[in-house]
Amino acid sequence: MTPSARLQAAIELLDEIIVAARDNGASGDNIAKRFFKARRYAGSKDRRAVREHVYTAIRRFGDRPENGRAAMVGLATEQPELQELFDGSAYGPAALTDSELRASGETIPDWLLDRFAALIDGNEQAVLFDRAPLDIRLNPKKGDAKTIEAAWPEIEALPLPNAYRLPTGTNVENDKQYNGGEIEIQDLGSQAIVAACLPSAPKLVLDMCAGAGGKTLGLAAQLPDDARIIAADTDRGRLSRIEPRLRRSGARNIVTVLLSPNKEEEALGPFKGKCDLVLVDAPCTGTGTWRRNPELRWRMTSKRLDQTTKLQARLLELASNMVAPGGRLVYAVCSLLDAEGGDQAEAFLKNHPKWRDIEVDLPIGRPYRKGTLLTPYQDGTDGFYFTCLEKL
């Protein structure tokens, strides 16, 4: 592919990502996989160049552009070398005109800026779009530090037990340590939330929004085998992805439960008031994961944020009903917005006098509004807010 053809391909791929973001469709990564699968003539250098154009545009513009061409024209305004590629050639984009739609604006949409946690200053905002690191978690029931340190001499130990960082781009999924269940890929922030769950020794654990089971497996790796762990979710596809991970990890104390949206309490009835620990890793806007998923900004609207916070409040209430007296509830979001973090925790505590927040002693994170805030700039993690609550 010529440089101009690569730019045109980037415009076409951006068109699909923009429509999906508007209509809450497939993720950009999945769209890109399908896009290149249908264009097998594109070599590895072509795919890499197209992706670079696409994700540079996604990171640059906080507001969703009208279309892929507007995104790339806006980028070309700031990168003059791109203007030459709008050459009207057979497979390239049409020549630029004075009346072109051009994407513009800041990296964070204006309507969102004042909704971030108070601690998110200019330094914090500047790294929200950096490339995320590759963190792994050692499964102490199947592996040991010496083995993985020998496998990757460049590995870096992180400040939580069993947490390590590898150079970005390291391919671990084809490695025997990964396939043998000795390690799992997991951001340090997610590992911190698991650590916050474990000062006590719970016998019955409910991971109420388990998804593909990353935190479920983290809990299983740390708890004794006689602890019973329930992994529940409303998304059948996401929940099904825990099965191969379970087989690799060797965990035998995890049971999956598929929930029906808005009818979760029916399936969770047997656990009502009996759980020593409930983890709610609630659905959220994902503002803390923009390093990995910058297109999430293009999916966000004030209406969707309002719908999400209402769902979070409902799930937090439901989770509280599952906790036994003296038990704990950990509420977490991969978001840096107050509406999804501190606001939720403080509103819950205000309306539930028989609950209290518990201070968590971790080597990372900052105390913030009845909980803990983790950020890319301060902690080198994805952005998270979590709170640990106890039922009196």
What would you note in describing this structure?
The protein has 392 residues and is α/β, with parallel strands linked by helices. It has three domains: 3-94; 134-185, 2-Layer Sandwich (Alpha-Beta Plaits), CATH 3.30.70.1170; 190-391, Vaccinia Virus protein VP39 (Rossmann fold), CATH 3.40.50. It has helices spanning 3-23, 28-37, 44-60, 68-78, 80-83, 110-113, 122-126, 145-151, 176-179, 188-196, 214-222, 236-240, 242-249, 264-268, 296-299, 302-322, 342-351, 376-379, and strands at residues 134-138, 156-157, 163-166, 183-185, 204-207, 228-233, 254-258, 275-281, 323-333, 355-357, 366-368, 371-374, 384-391. The strands form two sheets. Strands 5, 6, 7, 8, 9, 10, 11, 12 and 13 form a nine-stranded mixed beta sheet that branches. Strands 2-3-1-4 form a four-stranded antiparallel beta sheet. Strand 11 and strand 12 form a beta hairpin. Helix 1 packs across helix 2 (28-37) and helix 1 (3-23) packs across helix 4. The model has no long low-confidence stretch (mean pLDDT 96).
